[in-house]
Design goal:
The complex is a heterodimer of chains A (522) and B (274). Chain A is an all-alpha fold and 522 residues long. Chain A is 77% helix and 0% strand. Classes of the chains: A mainly alpha (522), B alpha/beta (274).
Chain lengths: 522, 274
């Protein structure tokens, strides 16, 4: 049975590379070649460190192995589609395989992969240190095997658990949110890498090394280091930690499979809730409700709900763009509050405004079915972003003003921010009707969508430069307040014209947009 | 094809003027290709007002494409359709005001709750909030979705999503209701409720057009049936005309050609040798 799964694994690997015939075989070979070259390169670095800088090389080895291990674990979370699908319990559940048979077969099959080769070669680098004896070399190779199995078992256990979770809508939402948090973490890490390096230098290497050496990947690394130092007892203990970890991960993996078979993977049943009060409508908020609900307010409310938690992908996009905008705005704060406001709104709005239908999925077809008025719908959707961004911008400005005592600049900065929002919304609406992308089903032309966003960025940036030039040339003669208000008026007018133009364009041929958003336009 | 709008009109149950002298749906020479052979190949139809009209045909016959052409979701290469006196092309949005459409797999904003979805549907159609509220509550109750009205549609089963699709399609009380495989994934109780609803809708002046593979349902509900094969009308008429004393299922198989297993084929299925 294990051999059947190994053959299946190899076949899936070839298919995953896409193409056919020579291209497929070439792709297959290139994947292995890249893993081989990269693995040898990193392994060689480890060998050099072990030979020339044994003291500082120890911590580097532990960090390296930990990073590789984390990579294996987070890959199924960050990119659920990237892993081969045979490890998904749902796919193998239809065959008469026990969990232990599945684990054994999939473990062996998983070892025959370029990624496993890379992990093995990386960990085995120490075996090539010139000072190592035959016994040490063999121990290091053995440890590398354990490390590879450890990575694989951790990754597969994660995937098996996710395989059940993603069957429920809430599970999928959770995965999207975790992905967002991890992405944000990686971004923050890269932003602060310089500071971290400096901090790390100040930390006692012993404490960091000691902590890492008891983690499963670190224990493997420490086992190699102890063997190289002749501390065979410590090496055996560390290796035992790693082996026990492998065993636990395999049990977890089998439990994930068994749990799936028992049907314990779905979302918990919700208690039946009662119908809401008959007095108020459900979708549109009270102030709108009390005034005059319409197609515009309905579309705006729908989009707002999607941004605010209802659709995890929409929420993720909005939250990430606000965080990114915060960083960019803060970087620009050295040029003053006005520059910060412009930069913040530029990033916060321009990142998601050009794809207003991104999260509607089949909902766009519903709009088509109803024959709903396109102009108000587009305008409503376009207004949802600013409703979130403008209060956040105001909060950012107040915080920055309080920190830097620039209160006199707040109003001016706010008006400038509003001007940027108005133009960005207009340009975004236009781009949304040019090349939308369905970010739920991942359909639509990515290349053209990217071009659209780039054009939006360039145009918006050009308009901001033009406004700045006008400011410099006319500011002395007309007065800053009047000029700012003129800028706002022109920006709002331009935004309004652009949204209307986009609405008309959409109304002329909504079928084109539907075809782009759906896999099968029939 | 633009009808004479001065013709006699009678009020429907909602008090609206309804023209009784024209068919609910008319299609003339509908043709559609997707780069290859014609998926719909010159279809002519006349669906009488206040009727239950079935569209039958084998898989891939072009039923769904034809429905999309009738409902203004797809532009025909040639030909046109008229819904309740309104030419679908070039007025698809106006025609859609007169019809409700429930696809096989309903297309809805699945991150809205059931109640929110109905409000959204009503506001898009320009309905008054009080009317939306009243009708939504009634539809949710009758379709047994009251307890799920605060849950997002993404958490609904397929049967619940279908019922929600029907509620969204009926909310504005259209004159023509078009449904693609409406009874699949519904349990017997909900099937009965839906049939009763549709009968009541029909008696109130509405016209129901639906496609189905289930000939028993077509035979039980429909006044007239059209059989589509390879994008063309193979037969059209009353159920009795088409059945001619046989079951509609048998008549359908005789019409489009059945496939009989040869003696000895799949013989291994009757043994347990493995």
């Amino acid at each position: 049975m294990a051999l059947v799964l190994v053959r299946l694994k190899l076949a899936l690997q070839r298919r995953a590379l896409g193409g056919s015939g020579i291209a497929q075989r070439l792709g297959f070979a290139v994947g292995w070649l890249i893993a081989l070259v990269l693995g040898f390169s990193v392994g060689a670095v480890v060998a050099v460190f072990s030979t020339l800088l044994p003291a500082s090389g120890d911590l580097a080895l532990l960090i390296l192995l930990s990073l590789v291990f984390v990579g294996w674990v987070v890959t199924p979370i960050l990119m659920p589609g990237s892993a081969d699908q045979m490890a998904d319990p749902e796919r193998l559940a239809q065959y008469p395989l026990t969990p232990s048979q599945q684990v054994t077969g999939l473990l062996l099959a998983g070892l025959l992969a370029p990624t496993a080769l890379f992990a093995f070669l990386t960990a085995a680098g120490g075996a090539f240190a010139s000072s190592a004896t035959v016994g040490i070399r063999l121990t290091v190779v053995g440890c590398a095997v354990v490390f590879t199995v450890l990575c694989l078992a951790a990754s597969r256990a994660t995937q098996a658990l996710l395989g059940g979770i993603v069957d429920s809508r809430r599970g999928r939402d959770l995965v999207v949110l975790v992905t967002g948090v991890i992405s944000l973490g990686i971004y923050l890490l890269t932003q602060n890498v310089h500071n971290m390096t400096e901090s790390l230098a100040g930390v006692q290497n012993e404490s960091a090394e000691s902590a890492l050496s008891w983690t499963p990947p670190g224990a493997v690394g420490q086992a190699m280091i102890s063997a190289q130092n002749g501390q065979w007892g410590d090496a055996a203990v560390r290796l035992a930690v790693a082996v026990v970890s492998v065993g636990l991960l395999l049990l977890l993996w089998a439990w994930g499979i068994r749990r799936f078979a028992n049907g314990g993977h779905g979302a918990p049943r919700r208690s039946v809730t009662q119908l809401r009060s008959a007095v108020s409508l459900s979708l549109t908020p009270f102030p709108v409700n009390a005034a005059r609900p319409s197609a515009l307010t309905a579309a705006m409310s729908q989009q707002l709900r999607y941004y605010l938690f209802r659709s995890p992908r929409a929420f993720q996009s909005m939250a990430l763009s606000l965080v990114l905008a915060g960083f960019v705005g803060h970087d620009m704060s050295i040029y003053g509050l006005v520059a910060e406001s412009a930069a913040f709104t530029f990033v916060a709005i321009a990142l998601h405004a050009p794809n207003l239908f991104a999260y509607d999925d089949k909902g766009f077809t519903y709009l088509l079915v109803t024959g709903a008025p396109w102009r108000p719908i587009l305008a409503g959707k376009a207004l949802a972003g600013p409703i979130i961004v403008i209060p956040v911008m105001l909060a950012v400005l107040f915080v920055e003003a309080a920190l830097t005592d620039q209160w006199s600049q707040v109003l001016l900065a706010f008006v400038v921010g509003l001007s940027v929002v108005a133009v960005a919304v207009g340009l975004g609406a236009l781009v949304s009707t040019w090349e939308p992308q369905n970010r739920i089903e991942r359909t639509g032309g990515r290349r053209r969508a990217l071009i659209g966003v780039t054009i939006e960025f360039v145009l918006l940036f050009a308009l901001m430069i033009a406004a700045l030039l006008a400011w410099v040339l006319l500011g002395g003669r007309v007065g800053a307040t009047l000029l700012t208000l003129c800028c706002l008026f022109i920006a709002v007018l331009l935004g309004w014209v652009l949204v209307r133009a986009a609405g008309s364009r959409l109304a002329r041929d909504p079928f084109k947009i539907e075809a782009l958003l759906r896999r099968d336009p029939r | 094809m633009t009808p004479d709008r001065s013709a006699a009109a009678a009020p429907d149950v909602a008090g609206r003027a309804v023209r009784t002298d024209i068919d609910a749906v008319e299609a003339t020479g509908l043709v559609k290709t997707f780069g290859g052979p014609r998926v719909v190949d010159g279809v002519d139809l006349a669906i009488p007002r206040e009727s239950f009209y079935g569209i039958a045909g084998p898989n891939g016959a072009g039923k769904t494409t034809m429905i999309r052409l009738l409902t203004g979701l797809l532009r025909p290469d040639t030909g046109n359709a008229v819904i309740d006196g309104v030419q679908v092309w070039p007025n698809p949005d106006e025609a859609k005001q007169h019809l409700g459409y429930v696809p096989d797999n309903p297309v809805l904003f699945d991150r809205l709750t059931g109640a929110e979805m109905l409000e959204f549907a009503g506001l898009l159609r320009g309905m008054e909030p009080a009317v939306i509220r009243h009708r939504s509550q009634e539809l949710l109750r009758i379709l047994d979705l009251e307890g799920a009205s605060d849950r997002v549609i993404a958490d609904y089963s397929l049967g619940m999503t279908k019922r929600m699709g029907l509620a969204a399609a009926l909310l504005h009380s259209p004159r023509v209701l078009v449904m693609d495989e409406p009874f699949g994934s519904l349990d017997p109780v909900n099937t009965q409720v839906m049939e009763e609803m549709l009968q009541r809708y029909r008696h109130g002046g509405g016209t129901v057009v639906f496609s189905s593979h289930v000939m028993d349902v077509v035979e039980r509900l429909c006044d007239r049936v059209v059989v589509i094969e390879q994008g063309r009308v193979r037969a059209e008429g009353t159920v009795a005309d088409l059945a001619q004393g046989r079951s509609l299922q048998q008549a359908f198989v005789d019409l489009v050609g059945g496939r009989d297993l040869q003696e000895g084929e799949l013989g291994w299925l009757s043994s347990s040798s493995g």
